[in-house]
Amino acid sequence: MSRAATAPASPPIAVLTGPTGTGKSDLALRLAREQGGRAIEIVSVDSAQVYRGLDIGSAKPDAATRAEIPHHLLDLVDPSESYSAGRFVRDCMAAIADIEARGATPLLVGGTMLYLRALTGGLAELPEGSADLRARIDADAARLGWPALHARLSAVDPAAAARIHPNDAQRIQRALEVYEAGGRPISELQLANQMPTARKFIVAALMPRDRQRLHEALARRFESMMAAGFLDEVRRLHARGDLTAAHPALRAVGYRQLWAHLTGACPLAAAIEQAVAATRQLAKRQMTWLRSMTGVQMFDPLEEQTLVGIRAAFSGAFLPR
Q: Does domain 13-123+193-313 have CATH number 3.40.50.300?
């Protein structure tokens, strides 16, 4: 009696993450080019790159790069739409299956930590909000200030408020939105995680030790984005007439501040200063997320041996198929 053949285990999936501005995309392209005949295709883990028209400010790869190395999960939705972590997990796993079915190898690249945690650790079912509800919360914040809304959150969800900074507008808004839409605190809902995906992930993170050099790099990168036409990009979105600051796409760092300038809320110089500061805050939050995750291999992007270390970490995921 013959024994049934056992299907080979699926190889682990490589994930390159880290705070914004640490060179993830450039390093990923270098890794992809090194593989030669074993084609690497990149899957974006970025909550801004899913939106059409958010190109310069999201550091979306250009057409030439995408022609050379296939990229996935870019330009999926219009900025007037919402895109959730749950949808990301479904889209990401579908992209991985498609890539592997063609004999290629996926490489996940990006710094949206909520997406990464949902993919590798499971996801809580959260109620969907609405543009009207977000607009109402934003109006209250404009009138009272985000610290006041943080105090409001403390009254209904002290656990969430304890881990959210009083000036973290995006997370305060989302926590209040979840509570008002569903009547249950987000901290309670997040304890009831769905099971993570069945695949194994090898997660490597670029984590700079020198914060000052990172801050300087972030300022230079924003300056380069402005020189490349970032303000004109936001101006085109503003001219559509159907978008507001309440739309999730326009809450992305950089877009939010330039949008405020175009609505007359602040001079351009102030908007740029606020955007650079918000980018630094984003990087800090991303590093905090990464330190709280288990199984992440950390590499300093400024060290000469970083590429060697990441190449070795990913060796099991880049096996021939």
A: yes
Ramachandran quadrant class, 294 (left: phi over 0; alpha: psi -120 to 50; beta: rest): beta
pLDDT digits over 76-118, tens only?
999 999 888 889 999 999 999 999 999 999 999 999 998 998 8
- List, in order, residues 6 or more apart from 106 with CB less than 8 Å away: 13, 14, 40, 41, 42, 43, 72, 95, 96, 99, 100
Distance CA 222, CA 51 (A): 19
C-alpha 264: how far from chain center: 28
Q: Where are the domains of the chain?
A: 13-123+193-313, 131-189
Tell me, rounded to whole angstroms, the distance of Cα 24 from its chain centroid: 12
**214, 281 contact by CB (below 8 A):** no
pTM: 0.81
Angle between helices 230-239 and 255-262 (to 10 degrees): 60
Q: 131-189: which CATH topology?
A: Histone, subunit A (1.10.20)
Q: How far apart are the first and last CA of the chain?
A: 30
Of the candidates 61, 50, 57, 56, the residue with the CA atom closest to the CA atom of residue 85: 50
CB 106 within 8 A of CB 100: yes
Say which amino acid occupies 19: P
Bridge partners of residue 43, in order along the sequence: 72, 108
Residue 2 has pLDDT above 50, yes or no: no
